[in-house]
Design brief:
The chain is an alpha+beta fold. It contains 15 helices and 22 strands. It has an 8-stranded mixed sheet with strand order 1-13-20-12-2-11-10-9, with helices on one face. A 6-stranded mixed sheet has the order 15-19-14-18-16-17. It has a 4-stranded antiparallel sheet with strand order 5-6-8-7, with helices on one face.
Length: 507
């Protein structure tokens, strides 16, 4: 379902021929391409290079090259072998992984059952932001160097895909112990590229790991992730040839990029939802009637057209439409100013005012201003507090400096994980630390099986519980929009909108 536009490709090809004839054309194909560095304009820096310590969904694009996961996935988020080449479920509370043999971490440490046990226990331990991901895991037994069994305290149908996310990113036990448990600045994994340098707010450099287990994989010699928060600057640097890939193309620039020469646009649906996070324990937004009123006052269709230029779909919940776990028909975002005003009156609230932290890029600022205008229609004043993405996350999730945050939920490989991390009491992204009523019972149903048909009723219950409580304001599922130079070949996206860059080469 990826739509890749190649407008201007013929003109670009002619130009490359002319450059080659003149002895130029450093951006085209050629013998030196095997040694070229792929330059990626990333929208945000990593919050941490240690997978268990980060707190931003945008981290994954920078983490995937460094860390292979136990389970991988295809472009539609179906599980496939990763560092675990196969798996079985001896019972509904056991998951046995058969590990790939001959794998080493980038420091030469062998990858084996003991390494997996170390990593799972580390992810469940002190200092980890992903303890909730592995709440169902009681113990890990090492059956042999190439096999481990995860012992669960309850059935957990989401666990397999949990292991394709941060919890499955394997770090070198040797390196972790040498770094006193924190690999934020000196990452060592088992991915296709190894760490070279990280200048915060500027660039992350990685190079091809020659000892990588997959000899047949296509990998560029190196990747420079250049941190460019401003969308206009990212697209300008792409079109000028300073970057080879530009992440998070602004919807306002997408049409122009499709028509430009020498570049292409990968446009595809994804599970990423633009939303307002809400602290349900805050004084301003603690009343569910107030939260429902604010949600009803959002004209999402207008928002989609005005801020996202039609590049996406209106969001009814945290899971997108046309996906197997989409919310039921009973979960529907509506626009009703009269009902919004009535709910505020019923709650006894007048002259409501609150701060909302917002990512400081121009596209998010545009959304924030529209929301501010729409909420003003029901007498609510919002003070927009712009912050750089990593700071915004820290200010809201760690320091609780405001009752609301306008940002994105970049999605997770399994839908139950999205519900658990945002709405269960132990979820890192639930700043209230209070479970949404009914969410635990719903997820119990969803976790009882690994079969989609059996899991769907529980996920429907979760969607309805969230809709009733209004613990967040879903806005729009914006399409994944990634810009590429025409000489970048083999690029593959996925429903997360977080490419891994395996298979990419220069044409």
């Amino acid at each position: 379902m990826i739509r890749r536009t190649r407008a201007g490709g013929v003109a670009a090809a002619i130009l490359l021929v002319l450059l080659a004839a003149c002895g130029g054309g450093g951006g085209g194909g050629g013998a030196g391409d095997a040694d070229r560095t792929l330059r990626v304009a990333a929208a945000a820096d990593a919050s941490s290079l240690d997978p268990i310590r980060g707190n931003a969904g945008t981290d994954h694009v920078l983490l995937y090259p460094l860390y292979d996961t136990l389970i991988s996935f295809n472009e539609t988020l179906e599980p496939k072998p990763g560092l675990a080449e196969s798996w079985t479920q001896p019972s509904d509370t056991e998951l046995t992984l058969t590990l790939r043999q001959g794998v080493t971490f980038q420091d030469g440490t062998p990858f084996d059952g003991e390494a997996v046990k170390f990593n799972i226990e580390r992810a469940k331990g002190e200092g980890s932001n992903i303890q909730a991901d592995l709440a169902s895991v009681d113990a890990v037994t090492v059956d042999s160097p190439s096999q481990v069994t995860l012992k669960l305290n309850r059935p957990d149908g989401s666990l397999l895909m949990v292991l394709s996310d941060r919890a499955g990113m394997m770090v070198s036990p040797t390196a972790a112990e040498a770094a006193d448990g924190d690999l934020s600045l000196k990452p060592v994994g088992a991915g296709g590229w190894s760490f070279v340098e990280w200048k915060r707010g500027s660039v992350l450099k990685v190079k091809k790991y020659d000892g990588y287990w997959d000899d047949d994989s296509t990998r560029v010699a190196a990747i420079d992730f250049n941190i460019i928060p401003e969308p206009k600057t990212r697209i300008t640097s792409l079109r000028s040839g300073q970057q080879d890939v530009a992440m998070e193309i602004s919807p306002s620039d997408a049409d122009g990029l499709e028509k430009a020469s020498g570049v292409a646009l990968d446009a595809a649906p994804r599970v990423n939802v633009h939303q307002v996070y809400v602290n349900r324990a805050s004084e301003e937004l603690g009343d569910p009637k107030v939260r429902k009123a604010l949600s009803l006052a959002i004209d999402r269709e207008t928002l989609l057209k005005s801020a996202y230029f039609g590049r996406g779909k209106v969001a009814d919940g945290i899971i997108p439409p046309d996906y197997w776990a989409e919310p039921p028909a009973s979960v529907k975002s509506t626009f009703d100013l009269d009902e919004a005003k009535k709910l505020l009156a019923d709650a006894g609230v007048e002259g409501l005012e609150f701060d909302m932290i917002a990512n400081a890029d121009s596209a998010t600022t545009r959304v924030a201003e529209i929301l501010k205008e729409q909420w003003a229609e029901i007498g609510v004043t919002v003070n927009i507090v712009p912050r750089e993405i990593v700071q915004a996350s820290n200010d809201y999730f760690n320091d609780r400096k405001a009752p609301a945050l306008l940002s994105q939920w970049t999605g997770r490989p399994d839908p139950a994980l999205s519900y658990r991390l945002n709405f269960a009491a132990e979820g890192y992204f639930n700043t209230s630390a209070e479970a949404v009523p009914g969410i635990d019972d719903a997820l119990k149903v969803a976790d009882a099986s690994t079969e989609i048909d059996a899991r769907k009723p529980g996920l429907d219950q979760a969607a309805e519980a969230v809709f009733a409580d209004t613990p967040f304001f879903p806005l729009v599922f914006q399409d994944s929009l990634i810009g590429l130079r025409d000489n970048v070949k083999g690029f593959e996206g996925n429903l997360l909108g977080k490419p891994k860059f395996m298979g990419v080469s220069f044409g």
